[in-house]
Structure formats: C-alpha cells, structure tokens
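Dear H.,

Thanks for agreeing to be a second pair of eyes. The structure we're designing against is below in token form, covering all 124 positions.
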C-alpha cells in the first residue's frame, strides 16, 4: 500500500527485502512473530526449532540493516526472551549511547520496541 507518507509492504519480508536497494530506507519497524506457537490462521509456522527461528531472524535483521540508510532508525519489537537473542544480531545497527541505561533504563515489566539507529542518530 502506497500513501503520501510512504509504502507499507504486506508480504514475506525476505522476498521483499532482497529486491530493495542498500541504504535506501529511513526507518524500519519490525514486529516479528515470537515463535510461541500462535495460530495466525494464515499457514505461518510459529513453532520452529530455536535454531531455525534464530537463523530466519538473523537473515531478515541483516537485510533490514543492509537497506537502512546511515542515520536511519531500526525499531524492533520483541518480548524480553527474544530481545536478548536479537541483541548480538543488531550490532549491525548499534551506535554507542543509543540504548537507555542506569536511571534511564526501562522497567523489565515492559516489552518496548528496540530502537537501533544506524550509525550516528540524526535526531538528538
């Protein structure tokens, strides 16, 4: 779907991402399935082995990093159990100082999207 604000893709992400130019996107927002056995009623298998799931996640996360412009932002929504698995993969978009720590850290009872600006953030 295309609007004056941009394009929204409703498709298998890997099939779309492979056709996108490198460093072409300002913002990526990802809310992947959590591999907890949910029935999406569309044939998607939400209960892969841990290895299969993390391999698949690594593929699409690295593709998202590839298409993200320098200074762009990558929002990744994840439950805490997955966030710790995604963190090493997200190094492709990490910039020192972009994650809240200490008094600024969020409560562990929240499941916020993870924001990984690529390189130096444009907005400070």
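And this is the sequence the design step returned. I haven't edited it by hand at all.
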């Amino acid at each position: 779907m295309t609007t004056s604000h941009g394009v929204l893709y409703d498709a298998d992400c890997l099939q779309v991402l492979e056709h996108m130019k490198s460093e072409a996107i300002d913002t990526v927002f990802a809310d992947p399935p959590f591999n907890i056995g949910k029935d999406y009623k569309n044939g998607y298998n939400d209960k892969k082995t841990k290895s299969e799931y993390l391999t698949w996640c690594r593929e699409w996360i690295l593709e998202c990093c590839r298409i993200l412009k320098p200074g762009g932002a990558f929002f990744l929504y994840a439950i805490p159990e997955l966030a710790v698995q995604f963190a090493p993969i997200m190094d492709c978009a990490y910039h020192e100082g972009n994650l809240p720590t200490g008094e600024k850290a969020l409560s562990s009872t929240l499941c916020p999207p993870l924001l990984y600006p690529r390189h130096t953030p444009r907005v400070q």
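Two observations from my side: The beta strands are 2-3, 6-7, 25-30, 68-77, 113-117. The domain at 2-117 is CATH 3.40.50.150 (Rossmann fold).

Warmly,
E.
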